[in-house]
Amino acid sequence: MCIAFPQHQFSAVKIFPMAVNYRMSSKPITITLRFYEELNDFLPAHRRKVRFRRSLSHNTTVKDVIESCGVPHPEVDLILVNGVSVDFTCRIKTGDDISVYPVFETLDISGETRLSGRPLRRLRFLADVHLGRLTRKLRLLGIDVHEHPEGGDAELARASAKSGLVLLTRDRRLLMRREIQRGYFVRSVHPNEQTVEVIRRFDLRNSLAPFIRCTSCNHLLETVPKDDVRHLLKPLTNKYYRHFSRCTGCGKVYWQGAHHKKLLGFVNWVSAAAG
Ligand SMILES: [Zn+2]
Q: What are the per-10-residue average pLDDT scores of the chain (275 residues)?
């Protein structure tokens, strides 16, 4: 299959001060927090995998407290306040002990308040425009990944919320937008590692269907007779290849050309690495 990946460079993780929009209140609040598993990726070293104390000058919601620690709310699936599961709107009080968990893969928490909602029947994604190479690699594997190239953060967040697409981004500030319900902060900066990371995180290994989707526009491919595309082929392609597919969206023509073996190697590598 002849496909070329553009050579984008990824920006580093955006570092920003964590501002909290607390409501004014005269009483200081002291709480303790503990973040579990991969949520620790967002914390400074001294706060990882330990319970730590925070003092706040104002009353606020548990969502604001969690995000003030640097953890975007779409990464969170369960919050326990004093051992009781709560949603993001829960207002904290002094002395509260807060435990924050990511999406569970093996532990049954069906009786608790899962914050990421019910599992999607068919996972579809909306990728930040800065994740162009990841987007194309996921499409190569048959995964449904949309883009919103012309919009800013607000448009991207609205599109994710309206469509139910899972937002993939490396912008923590974007993930913290209130309207986003499903999202994931891609940890790695390397497109191959990012691909494995997303497949593992969303348990997509058994859903891979390589070479069925256009890497440029995400539409599905259809098999076409050579005569239908012959006028688009270069002489050597016309001479050596017999089987062709065409994108049902943009019309781009695909065939198993010189790069196919390399792409097949990538598919096999991802399947093994994600296992
Ligand atoms: Zn296309």
A: 36 39 64 95 96 92 96 94 94 95 60 55 85 97 90 87 92 93 94 96 89 96 96 93 96 92 94 90
Predicted TM-score (pTM) of this structure: 0.78
Total of domains in the chain? 3
Residues linked to residue 53 through DSSP beta bridges, in sequence order: 32
Q: How far is the CA of 145 from the centre of ligand 1 (A)?
A: 12
Task: Output the CA 216–ligand 1 centroid distance in Å.
Answer: 5
Sequence-distant (≥ 6) Cβ neighbours of residue 16 within 8 angstroms: 172, 173
Q: How far is the CA of 191 from the centre of ligand 1 (A)?
A: 21
Interval between CA 100 and ligand 1 midpoint (Å): 41
Would the CA dihedral through 256, 257, 258, 263 be positive or negative? negative
CA distances for 197 relative to 18, 28, 181, 191, angstroms: 26, 40, 20, 10
Is residue 116 included in any domain, yes or no? no
Q: Which of 185, 207, 229 is the last residue of a domain?
A: 207
Burial classification of residue 134, based on how many CB atoms lie within 10 Å of its CB (0-12 exposed, 13-18 middle, 19 or more buried): buried
Same domain for 203 and 230 = no
Place of tokens 């009781």: 84
Domain that holds residue 69: 29-101
